[in-house]
Amino acid sequence: MALVLTEEQSMLRDSARGLISDKAPVSHLRQLRDAKDPTGFSRELWKTFAEMGFTGLLVPEDFGGSGLGCVEVGVVMEEIGRTLMRRRFFPLPCSRHLRSSRGGSAAQKSEHLPKISAGSLIAALAIDEGTNIGRCRPDCRRCASATASS
Questions:
Q1: Residue 124 burial (10 A CB sphere; 0-12, 13-18, 19+)
Q2: The whole model's pTM is what?
Q3: Confidence of residue 17 (pLDDT cuts 50, 70, 90)
């Protein structure tokens, strides 16, 4: 089945393609790799992504986002993959949004979703891959403060 994009989705694709080809060519990935940057991505580029509205694609309009859907996220992700852009794009808007939007309290939504949309909160989803949930213990010191605020 062929995916036919709407005019809005085509404009989103073109915007993402232009930004990524200009600001995140393969040479950008190589620079990050060679510099052994501990964050693994460019915060400056993340800020630009947020300014373009990409971090708020799935965030409801009531919370500062676009209120769009997974097709639009897929359109942007396809462009990210075109240049192998090193970007923490999918985990942030998809997983954190879905957690807060579908299962979070009104207070959590009000606190987190506008920040996600604005790009000022970088969040990720943590999943236990086993059945031993009771035996798991968080040992990650680097992200302990982020874990505590979730």
A1: middle
A2: 0.73
A3: very high
